[in-house]
User: Fold these one by one.
Assistant:
Number 1:
Amino acid sequence: MVVSILHRATGIALSVGGLAILTWWLFAMSNGADAYDSFAKVASGPIGLIILIGLTWSFFQHLLSGIRHLTMDTGATFELGINKTFAILTIVGSVVLTAAMWVYLLGVAK
Amino acid sequence: MSIGDSSTPLGKARGLGSAREGGDHWLTERVTSIALLLLGTWLVASLLLLPKLDQRTLIEWLHAPSGAIPMALLIVVGFKHALDGMKVFIDDYVHEPGENFIVNVLLLFLAVGGAAIALYALARIAFGAVA
């Protein structure tokens, strides 16, 4: 049940925050190097990083629980044990993928 | 339910059959989600594989068709999937028909408007209007 609520919460975060930032990012890029620098400054600040890491986790969580929902749409994995294992795996997977991505990104950027 | 009307909500709904709509919305949400599995993975992979994330590198990436075309698809499919998902959320919590209509129209305008802004910025980059 927690994973089902997370699916909805992360979906809203991605719809509102994710798409707004994607649009802002593209718009800043298209306005030249100076405009992009002001975007990058906010994005790489502490609040920017918290939001971006949060959205990265939302993305992976929504993607993995989305795969879970697609599987359940076929009528599979409703047995209690498998269902619970799959639910837990989406959380473990999203945290691991988020951590791996940001360790790599912050390591390369420095 | 007016005064003197003693029928229950269930009694009123019985025999009317289904709404005869909603199936397309449900299926579209699933199909766009499968497309976004691919497009989302493409975006993450691209961000990890680009040598740097400065403006010049990003412009080069989205100026090439191999970057511009998947990004255009990501924008269109992403906003559509967000629109479909947010509609489910709104319909679950905003029940009064007038309010529900207004909020859904607002959502539609935001989604289409947002997609237009993102596509405009991408088009400028893709067609070489950005240095």
Number 2:
Amino acid sequence: MKLRTRLALWILVGTVVVATAGPAAAAPGDYPTRDIQIIVPFAPGGGADASQRAFNKYAEPIVGRSLVIVNRPGAGGATGWAELARQRPDGYTLAIATPPFTIIPPLVKPRQTGYKLDQLDTICIYAVVPDVLLVREDSPWKTLKDFVDYAKANPKKVKAGNTGTLGADFMTTLLIEHATGIELTQIPFTGGAQQLQAALSGTIDAMVASTLFSVAQKGKMRTLAIASPRRDPMLPDVPTFQELGYNVISERYRALAAPKGLPAHIVDYWARVCKQVTDNPQFREEMTKLGQPVAYLGPQEARSAVNTMTEHIQTLVEKYNLAE
Amino acid sequence: MWSDILHAVVVNLYPSHLFVVLVGTVAGTIIGALPGLSAVSGVALLLPFTFAMDPAMGLIMLAAVYMSAEYGGSISAILINTPGTSGAACTTLDGTPLTRKGQAQEALYTSLLAGTVGGFFGAVVLLFFTPALAQASLLLGPAEYFWVAVAGLALVAGLSGRHTVKGLVGVSLGIAMTLVGQDAISGDMRFTFDNFYLVGGIPIVPALLGLFAVASILNLLENSQEAVAPLVMRKGALRFVIDKLKGMKLMLLWTSVLGTLIGIIPGAGASISAFVAYGEARRMSKHPEEFGKGSYEGVAAPECANNAVVGGALVPLLALGIPGSGSAAVMFGALTVHGIIPGPRLFTERADLIYTFMIGLFSTVVAMLLFGLATIRWSSLAVRAPRRVMVPGVLVLSVIGTYGLANSVFDVYVLVITGLLGYLLAKIDVPIVTIALGLVLGALVEQSFQQAVLVGQVDKGSALLYFLTRPVAVVLMLLALGILISGIVQLVRGRGPGMGADEDETGAAVTPRGPSLRTLNIALALALVALSAFIASEARHLSAMAAGLPWILAVAFALLGAVLLVVNLLPKTGALRARAFPFASVPWGHLVAVALAVVALAIGTEAIGFYECAFLFLFATTWILSGDVRGARRAALPLGFAAGFTVFVYVMFKVVLGIPTPPGLLV
């Protein structure tokens, strides 16, 4: 039984070592002292995963520590953010947040969401992906005006696809209905692939998606308008909703987030890292290839952007009575 | 086109390309064989390595992982009744009986060669028919998907054997499990009990692994033999299998076609194709009675189909930019990293890449075949492993494999709970595979129905009209009805007048008093009635769209419970069931100890770390199961195995695959 005693001893020693090695409260200047976990609340291989991996690649040399990706998919990201909210705000567990996906669940299903919005701190935003409205190339609607006119004359007769009721595309479609005064019939699908198949096969007439689809499906799908404040360099011919007189802004952020209460010096640290990474032309090029235009919003701007988005979604939630 | 193909052949013979195919094949076969990690997790794990390669090469490596993982899944399915991937769930049905008869090697060769045929067929289709098939796939809408799913569910009759009522119980339970979570169509939360882990639903792969792997491992405790199964190393096993397969050419062709076509449908994949192929093979077979008892056709059909899926799933990806499966979706991601966004123009603008990749798919089939042939002799030795190390070993692999899927301890709990449930249900003759069928098809059948209703109301003013005015849907509907009717006919013919009886023909020992199968059946019936009441009470709070399927299930459970009650309470039919007690030979001490140890492993993983817990778990369970060992080896054997296996798992998962685990005390 000597072996077992020895084993017990080792476990004891190990516990003490680990317990003392973990920094109780990191003093400014000595962060980070170990590897950092980054929760990606989606499966590997998707858009958010790819952009966070690209970010990490350029951030690691600056940080000097490994940024370990932990994919934690489930419930459209909500499981991963709930996991983040449970962590200590010591800067060693961060996550990619992708508002509006991060914002919607606590607003519409507060009881079944494992976090509240104020439990997450947005550190910075490093990419902004606008939404677009697409129809098939052979559709009779050549412009947004054609589309709106038809839909106005035929309420609920136009079928728009989304990737899940109460999801991000669902909200954007509602926003378009709200701003243009039309009524569509939304047909939900369980993923981008199914939705695109339905669009190409004529099961649905229109869909909201990210700009990546516009670029990939050029020739098969026509982009009627883009929901950002300015035109996109990848789609120079596509007008914005605002140009056409409708106040529809709908973008998806790629942001770094932490559990609430991250010390100010760590927030500043990551803001600097974020700035350096987003200034790197190689990172910008890589992200452009992924269809994720790089932008930098520091802690203040990022927070206010998220707050504005939250208000917009809250308006929709109230108008369409979506909260449980 | 031909010059493109010729060029692609040359490129694929470069040593660098051959090398990545080999790496992908080895990795894919192993990842596929490990319980939990599936084809899609294998592809995702190797994704980062492709960033530094040229796009075609990276894609080919991922395709090699995808292809060989679908075969790898059958290795553990055949040897230890544990489907390594969800596509191999059906393979356990006949693979395990063959292993029990000492024919593990033959079963493995059957899976490998049938998989090669399917993979090759899929690759040919991909090379020559991609544009045409992709165009044809656009004829499909929700109504068509609905009937495909119904046709799949109609296979339940063929999968339940003699236990028809319990087969229906199984499939209903499987479908009921898919209800949990947020309904994508209505947005309603169903059966989540305000627990946010349940919002995403019951994860399918951990549940399948629990139902099959954990349940069958617990069953192994009853086995009084030292090893899992006998293994006869016959000379000429390969020859024997080739001759067998020559006799099923038509069936292999048909299951290849089915696998490829099902692969094209987004959202339907390897597991659905395997079920459909199994059902079809049974229907076509001259010996349908052998199915479930060790039929070579029963192994060949699902394995042929799940490899044919690979080519099929890539058709819409390459031609339309729609990934046909989870693995294809990761490949979509791999292409975007290189600045290539799959879409309709990919074919014309990047013909070089496309053809190199398509030809590369043939290399992956060849590599899978060669690697399989080289290793089957060795992998089949696994069944000779002593029970006392097999039980703890497989359980630890299942736990880490499940955890690695989504870095989630919740998934491990799902594994353990479904495992215990599966063990109990299998004991009272509920065919586990029918639960798997419901679990795999439940969401597709419900969502496509809801979508068809929504679309039908806009297009035709009524959902019924929509279903009846789409020619493809009508054809598929007739097909589904055909499968259902032929299942019922087979049942009636095979069973004769004793309808509804599911007695154990062997009679077993007479136990006039005390608990019996009759008692357990009555308990099951009451549980079903309670479940029905519970589902009905919850369904009242749901929107009309979200409440439809729950109501159907509530009625189904009530009816099934009533039938079971009647059959077991009637003096004549009930007495038959009073003779056997399925738990009579269970070693309760061992069972409870191992079950508790698994629960402790799941809980401890989060509290004190996975590897620490795995070591303690391995030591404890091996110790418990080595009661017959005396002397110094009594302690040395469990300790040595626990240490060695923990190191093996650590190297495999942490070092090679890089799967993070919850931070523990030591690692």
Number 3:
Amino acid sequence: MKKYAGIDVGSCTTKAVVIDQEDNMLGSHVRRSGVDYQSAATESLEVALGGEGWDGVPIVSTGYGRHSVNFATEAKTEIACHARGGFHYVQRALTVVDIGGQDNKVIKLDDKGHRLDFKMNRKCAAGTGTFIEEIAARMAIPLDKLDGMARKAEKRVKIGSYCTVFASTEILSLIRAGVSSDELVRGVFESVVDRVMEMIPLADTVLLCGGVVEYFPVVADIFKARISGEVIVPPHPQLTGAYGAALFARELAG
Amino acid sequence: MVEVKRVEIKATKQLREVMAQHFMELGEAAKTKNKKIAWCSSVGPAELAHSLGFLVYYYENHAAILGSNRTASDYIPVANAHGYSPDICSYLTSDVGAYLKGETPLTKAYGIEKVPTPDVLLYNTNQCREVYDWMSFYAREFKVPLLGVNTPRTQRQVREDIVESVAAQLEQMVPELEKIAGRSFDIDRFREILVISRECSQLWEDVLETAAARPSPLTFFDACIHMGPAVVMRGRQEANDYYRILLEELKERVNQGVAAVEGERHRFYWEGMPIWGKLRSMSELFARLKACIAVSTYCSSWVFSGFDPKDPFQSMARAYCSIFIGKDDKGKEDYIAEKVEHFGVDGILYHDAKTCPSNTNNRYGMANRLSERLGVPHLIINGDLNDIRCFSEEQTVTNVEAFVEQIEEAR
């Protein structure tokens, strides 16, 4: 069976996806990127391939570490790969929103999947996965509790800062004002959505992807409540970029 | 990654010589006091100073050198600690910081011990108010006169009353400058200087025009280096001599099809300031992507074709009021639109320079408006002219690569 691989070496995690000729996902793996991107990519790919070697397997790398994967056939940006992976699930004009560890991407595609425009967040991590981790650590709440807590919140509190440090101090003020932990956590997720919606107007079909949506599905529910168009979450949101890279690998192989 | 080959511009050797001459003269004058020294903003009344025999030192050029050699990062915090905010012009903060530390890159490059002490400080607010604040610092330090022109900006059109006012302000500077220079103003010498300066402008414009060829013989990054004489030696014959040499070489490159970017596939417009500390890496990035930044607002800013010796003060006032930075957004958009068409541009890059609002034009919706009007996509690059703490190389590389992919996809 012919196999094709995509590796997304992101700022926080490395993802590998292996597909067959019909674009079925045969295997995948996610691990922390750490400081050695080449090793992270190697290990992820080995696991995704089920321990088989990758001789003759076309590989496209993407993500911040895309140029560090020396065995890749080609490197493409994460903008290209998230667009490609996202379009695979929708096949019509849409906006792909990727909320990653270090940055957010909003990519507008036409009905052929061609990019019309894209935006990445500004320099601050506010509104990204790193921001959520930072705030959870500050509040001493395990990450796996956040989604459930946010769903229990009865009202919304506003966290408006687009600087992680300022947002943290805003939260301290809210704690002093007696706001419950559930409402604070909900406010953090609402602020992630606010930061995305400040980047570009969102209308019509939106596909959400990235680790934040994978681990905190409440974020998708907040988007659904906020925008009028259809909101789609693919089967493995965190793997969208790596899956897009694998699709490119298949297309490159002809 | 692919290694980028390039054919160097031979005239770079003469460029170094002419720039060295400029600084050596200033160093000599500072040491021997054989000539008076005027510090002048880059689009300030330099021609007037030249006509009175001053050697002219450009403080923005000094700041750009601090940016290019990346020492700005050492000096900006020094100025910050002295009460100059990290949010204001990083030309100002890096230059003031270097002064406070008693250092200048001119020492290593030309053996000049310290920045040449001024006899007078000149400015024109046609580009920004910061030049006034910047020179106010030095007026207090050196206790020398601070003279300048206050020009309104954001003009829908160049209004006659403003031209009158600027011309009057220029004339009013003359008696004070005569006193400092120790000589009388000679209007015929002023006319001669304007003619030389206008010729420099024309030659520089001709140099930039060669980039309309496909492939382009020079890039924005080359132009940032070769514009040196048009900035610091306009009004001096040596600048014109240099540009004749450069122009001849570039025309030859056009005739022979020598590309500044091997295999040029994409042509871009650069709006905004250069990121001085990243010129080389940015140049290599675009070359690797076979993208040539063929035209820019910044490098076209030293074209003053309106100088007229028959009407020296009025024409100088009009020319300095007509610069891009003084226009309103509509005027700027028309200017960019004309260049985009003329140079056959595939995409517009806007540099959002954190500390330079005057040279940052994407913040009021211009990028969206122009893309819609011209059908040309754009990319906003967050950075700064001198403070590279405001610049993320990783994010920029990804954004630029993705922008080129997007343009490829649309073909």
Number 4:
Amino acid sequence: MTTPPSGGDIRRVVVLLDASRASRTALVEAAELAARSGAELIGLFVEEEDLLRSAALPFARELGPTSGALRPLDPARIERRLRAQARELQHLLQGMTRRYAITASLQVARGRVVTQALAYISPGDLIVVGKTGWSSLRRRRLGSTARHLIGEASLTVMVMEQGGGAEAQPTMVLFDHPEAGLRALEMAARIAHRDSRILTVLLPPADPDTLDSLRRQAESWLQARDLAAKVQVLGGLAAETVAQAVRSGNGRALVVSRTSPALAGEAGSRLIEAVGPPVVVVP
Amino acid sequence: MPAPTPLAADALYRRCDPDGLPFETTDEITDLDQIIGQDRALDALHFGAGMSSSGFNLFVLGPNGIGKHTVVRRFLEERAAGEETPPDWCYVHNFEEPNHPQLLKLPVGSGKRLRDDLDNLVDELHAAIPATFESDEYQSRVHELQQEFNQRQEEAFQEIQEEAEGKDITLLQTPAGFTFAPVRDGEVIGPEDFQKLPEDERRRVEADISHLQERLQWVLRQIPKWRKESQEKVREVNREMADFAVGHLIAGLKESYPDHDGVRDHLDAIQQDVIDHVDQLRDRHQHEEQDDGGGYEALLRRYRANVVVDNSQLEGAPVVYADLPAHQHLVGRVDHRAQQGALFTDYRLIRAGALHRANGGYLILDARKVLMQPFAWEALKRALYAGEVRIESLDQIYSFLSTVSLEPGPMPLDVKVVLLGDRFLYYLLAEYDPDFRELFKVQADFEEDLPRSDDNNALYGRLIGTLVRRAELRPFHRSAVARAIEQASRAVEDSERLSLHAGDLADLLQEADFWAGEAGRERVEAADVQKAVDKQGYRAERVRDRMQDAIQRDILMIDTGGAEVGQINGLAVLQMGGFAFGRPQRITATARLGDGEVIDIERETEMGGPIHSKGVMILSSFLGARYATNRPLSLAASLTFEQSYGMVEGDSASTAELCALLSALAGAPLKQSLAVTGSVNQHGEVQAIGGVNEKIEGFFDICRERGLDGSHGVAIPQANVVHLMLREDVRQAAAAGQFAIYPVTSVDEAVALFTGLEAGSRGDDGRFPEGTVNRRVEDRLEELSRIHKHERGGKEDSGNDDPA
């Protein structure tokens, strides 16, 4: 790497955490990303007020996701468990600090996840969030937290389901607009693996002139930074088409601009649902 | 009775006339295409090899070096060449019982073919299985099933969630599960607010939540079932795809083995196994690492074949000789492979034994080696009794701890076992092993010699020619062949027979060839054979030379001149390894008054063997029978071998002992220039003994050293004259009248020869003539008897007179 991508550095990587195994995987991924981009790592653990309230209800029961067993639920136990989880996460983050030589800290807040997250995050942060929360239940629908956060215009959001791929896999970027596309490209270059930095630029279907101009723009940007990339023209911007391109290109992440037509409306949710690897939405 | 006359020089040796041999050198004669002198053994071989009933195995008896192995092998190979080549055998994995590898019988040459075909199959599976499972068809079918499952699950959740939303209830995630909670204005109601709700409302919420919980519970409980159903469907697709991937390969193979049900069944089993293990096979990377039997390679390995008996290179039936018939070499073994300190095995590590390889043909074994290898004899008998060979390690049979190992299927056995061994072993086995005669019913007994005749000489010449060519020696001139034939007679100590000991003969020929080479000759002459004989002797003669030296220096006292009473030169043979030599042995006798006993000092000191004792007892009974029929033998005689410090065995000295005793009784001196050998019977007849040539030569060597003067000679039993094959120097001395060989038939002749006196026969008066040796013996015995009687009478008188 010769020239670092200009402007808009990632200041902090904020990962929304709970006690699940999936959120720990996400934490590792986020720590690597933080180390790669020299950002600070923040674990944000929100003790949901809704949950505490519901636990206080006289008829509150907890249903085991695997066993299907019903257990009584009481606020004291929930509190205890939340504190224990916070301690565990604290410990985990300390481990990350040593392992990746980064600054990391845990923020514990109480309230609703989206509210707390939005309250905490400032521009320049990259927020990592589970596609459906970190629930172990398989649901295809995009979770409400992720949906809310993606909707916030000024945030860079990484939506992930499982851990990231191997370093040899390319980071893919949808380059469909001269300006927004450049921001996405910049982010992709930043989060791509430090050593391999393999990129695949996905171009939208368009008339030859537009396509040519987009291609030249992307290539000159890459050239200026001495980066190599594969360029691929998509058959369409429908969720399934893009997801298929990511699958067959064996991508490790997809970077897309919030303003991209691919993310417009319900189709946007469907795209994020359909793509397996993490999707990074840039402002 | 007249003293015996010396033998003529030509009676001392039977020459083989080179001119009688129908060739100049061995180059001119063709190889011997028959086995000479072994008609009986060949007949037995023919019978034994031809009998197909069980138990008619062969034991070939004969001393080492007689050529049993060569003869048997040649005979069997000739016979086997005309017989049918037995089938190939291979072991394959047994999919039903993995510890019992299956044995497949295949026509000759098909073993290798099957192995190669199965190797190819494995290679093709390597490619075909991943290709099938990477295909779009497979991927999309599995993806569909996955989607189906996800959708089912999701729909179920969605329904619950929608129902909950419709009732203002939300599904929340707890640290360890889910919970439902009532919502008002997007927020979960706290307990205080909940209490503020109207009673009906509260009850309704609780009922709704309870209902939703039940529904969610139901869904959660269905998920494993759905997953299982989905997995089962995926598995079914896997099977279908595997069947597709492997089916045509197997079908193709089966077509090329139309008549082999065993192979076809095995191929079907492979197909089924591929289908059953498709999960491991399709994802090789995932399973490659585990090599404990479940790994990818390990799975594919099971489809190969281990050809244990490959007869494809064989023409006719096999003839196998196992030179080290250890248990595992006979019945085969199962090898193990060490992997990180643990031992593993499978059907591919099964190794055939000699019995497997010889199946359908002949197995040649050395009886001694089989008996010396632990458990080999029992294993061989067991296989022959059972008619099958089972590969079992000694561990499996005898160990206290048994580990799981392979038990390969047994191979049906149709083999003729030919044991080679010396006679002693045969008779021991026949005596002590009850199984032996059941299993080895045919004995092929090898002759050790054949009669000497012109025809046989010619055959023997061809045998020599054959051995010469086989060992790539220089051609032998007929004079050398004749000399070798003479030596073959000497080897069996019989001028009328020839040794069939091919090993010794071959050694002699090789040595003669060496000396011819040393002498720079292109062909081997009689002198080279003679030199070989002499050198063989010389190399072994150190002990003999030391003894001769001791005699010359009078340390071992042997007289070769003059005459002595009660002292005679006997002749002994010493056998040292393969070398025998004769030496004179002074035998002395004393006689005095006694109770009729002849004391054998050797026996008294336990240095005399039973045969020697028997000889002495015979001569004492001869004495009594001939000289003291009417009165007690009032004699105490002692006989001994002077300066003998080891065991004395054999009765060949009994003539000498008798002569010495008679000399002592008659007071007649015996000529010390002579020596005698021969056993004697109760009638005083001299009987044949062994080692006559060595004995004569042993005495001759002493006499020659001291100077031959015509008085020297050896008396031998008449019956041994045909055995004479004496050294040339002895013959020359005999021809010059310096050394004589006297054949004797009775002890009287020997006595006459040694004393120079008439032995004497009883006249009409029943007495021996006056002055004869016998008369003097009889007189002396009478005298002793009288003295004895007198002594005894006197003693009795004095006893009676004794006032006490």
